Amino acid sequence: MAFSLITFLPLLFILFSFSNAMFNADTIKTLQGCHKGTKLPGLHNLKLYLARFGYLNHQHAPNNVNTGLDEFDQELEAALKSYQNFYHLNASGTLDGPTISQMVMPRCGQPDMKSSHKHEEKLLTFASRCQFFPGSPRWDKNHLTYAFGLNFPNAFVPPVVRAFNEWASVSGYFTFSRVYDETSADLTISFKNGNHGDGDFTNVLAHAAAPTVGILHYNANWNWSAGPEAVPGAFDLESVAVHEIGHLLGLGHSQDQNSAMWTSIPPGIVKGLNTDDIQGIRALYGLNK
């Protein structure tokens, strides 16, 4: 069954200013064929996109990109090649059709690039396609509680519970239980609408914070399915929950397209954990010893 979240949620009014510049995905489509040396209006949107997801000046906040520069320089070319390499595309440094198709696909809001922290590199020998957050943050306990936010649709609770159960089963380490007080929960799950103060939601399905912040936000503007079967034209809420819970536990994105920690999922598709995801969580928490 598919639901439109607008029918479940009241309008959320942003009562404070939010400074992060936002890219325009539609403008990126008009830039096809651009390459180093090109100067075109709208190129700053490509820079914003690559900064937003960790490829351009990823040591800084995305809004530090100078949006007044619509020039395709060497730094942008290097960033685009890194993006193309991550997504197994032709790393030409030219904004071609397949690259644009990947960029405009709805995806997770977490950046893709990993830290070069030496401890992470050691851990990654067990799971070469799985990335971790800078510093490899993790929980110092294996039982975590979770709570749903105000107005979270009851129909969408079971898919999230199933996602937690899947992680508990494959990890052999974590256990999870639901509580009803958000203030006491380790993890909170809610729907948000648009610009809500902790990241640009443009073309984003959901995002979650690294340990031990414990926040998962779904984008209410998409058409969601409660599953457990795939629903054409709707995004599977359980599959996205599995992905975002991975972030809550400390996993970054994977370069394995079959992994739950791959950055995007098309509508009408159901996806669960695979070997890469399991190896990643075991490596991060030292469960391979």
Query: How many domains is the backbone divided into?
Result: 2
- Poorly predicted runs of 5 or more residues: 4-21, 115-128
| Biggest beta sheet attributes | 6 strands, mixed
| Beta-strand share of residues | 5-15%
The CATH architecture of the largest domain would be: 3-Layer(aba) Sandwich
The third-level CATH topology of the largest domain is Collagenase (Catalytic Domain)
Mean pLDDT across every amino acid position: 85
Structural notes for this entry:
The chain is an alpha/beta fold. It has two domains: 25-104, PGBD-like superfamily/PGBD (Muramoyl-pentapeptide Carboxypeptidase, domain 1, Orthogonal Bundle); 118-284, 3-Layer(aba) Sandwich (Collagenase (Catalytic Domain)), CATH 3.40.390.10. It is 27% helix and 15% strand. The chain is built from eight helices and eleven strands. The strands form three sheets. A six-stranded mixed β-sheet has the order 2-7-8-6-4-5, covered by helices on one side. Helix 6 (157-171) packs across helix 7. The longest helix has 15 residues, at 157-171. It is globular, with a radius of gyration of 19 Å. The N and C termini lie far apart (42 Å).
